[in-house]
Design brief:
alpha/beta; Rossmann fold; two-stranded parallel sheet
Length: 319
């Protein structure tokens, strides 16, 4: 069930002032305010606060007796304002916000709810990027940050893909459908498509099965997501950069006292694993408590939503 908290007097990094912003959130497991450690989950690009339980998108990681054990932890997840899950959309104001602003809102929301310090801040994809932004902005608010299939920066590859999607969205009707179909190509891999489809045909539609699968994902997102929300999310994932305004990556992470855990995906075509490895080496050179783990899968970026057994094995030592 959605709950709400008001953030008053918020100025975004672009200079836009909001007298009040209402954040929606959900809590799972142990209640807020109990002695239980708090785990904040940052949702992915088309995700929401429903991380576990009925229709939970990360049930494979968060549930009773799981890695993030809801019998042990209080699990808190905010909705990115404007994702539409609570009915709120930003419309043309989406450019007011960057990924850093969302991370700030999440942490300020947690503080307003009485959270003094997080046990863990964890997220996948865009959610992982928000973890990085929060670590740089609040160097000791989380005992550890766990970034799965994400990065501290929007790479040229991510920004380029976002630009193409934004062009599609600007066309209006059908733009989101096309953008989603194209993006699914980058969320999987050629090998995963070969294994899944083997050049077979959907005889009912008279098209290759890979085409009908892409059409299904375009339809599925169009049925549950607003083009305004998709435009916001696509914009946000192109604005990630913890070094912005701080000079360099090293300057940005210098004050961070949290443990940093990265999970790269060996076949990820969206956020490449070698970028995570480079970041890990830089952190180790700085004397940071850094850990790099790698999920091995033919499924690419979406592996963090598919390979739950492997993800459980990788992360269990940190919980």
């Amino acid at each position: 069930m959605l709950s709400y908290v008001e953030i008053n007097g918020f100025t975004t990094s672009t200079g836009a002032f909001y007298p009040s912003l209402r954040l929606s959130y959900e809590v799972f497991g142990r209640p807020l305010g109990s002695p239980a450690p708090v785990v904040m989950v940052c949702h992915a690009l088309t995700g929401n606060s429903n991380v576990c339980g009925q229709d939970g998108w990360w049930n494979g990681l968060i549930s009773p007796a799981n890695v993030v054990d809801t019998d042990k932890y209080c699990v808190l997840c905010f909705n990115i304002p404007g994702n539409g899950y609570d009915g709120f959309l930003l419309g043309d104001r989406y450019t007011d916000f960057t990924a850093r602003d969302i991370a700030r809102l999440f942490v300020e929301g947690a503080k307003k709810l009485g959270v003094g310090r997080l046990h863990t801040m964890i997220g996948g994809s865009l959610g992982a990027c928000l973890v990085w932004e929060a670590l740089a902005e609040y160097p000791d608010f989380a005992a550890q940050g766990v970034a799965v299939a994400g990065d501290w920066k929007s790479t040229d590859w991510v920004m380029g893909l976002s630009s193409v999607q934004m062009s599609m969205l600007a066309r209006g009707d059908g733009g989101m459908y096309d953008a989603r179909m194209m993006t699914m190509l980058f969320f999987r891999t050629p090998q995963s498509f070969r294994d899944k489809f083997s050049r077979t045909e959907n005889t009912d539609l008279g098209v290759p099965n890979v085409t009908s699968w892409l059409m299904h994902h375009g339809d599925k997102l169009s049925g549950r997501f607003s083009p305004d929300a998709y435009r916001l999310m696509t914009h946000l994932i192109s604005t990630v950069d913890i070094s912005r305004g701080r000079g360099s990556f090293e300057t940005a992470v210098g004050p961070v006292r949290s443990r940093i855990v990265q999970v790269g995906i060996d076949s990820d075509m969206y956020f490449q694993a070698y970028e995570n490895e480079e970041t890990h080496r830089a952190l180790i050179a700085m004397g940071k408590d850094s850990h790099y783990l790698e999920l091995k899968t033919p499924h690419g970026h979406d592996g963090f939503l598919i390979e739950f057994r492997q993800l459980q094995d990788l992360l269990r030592p940190f919980f």
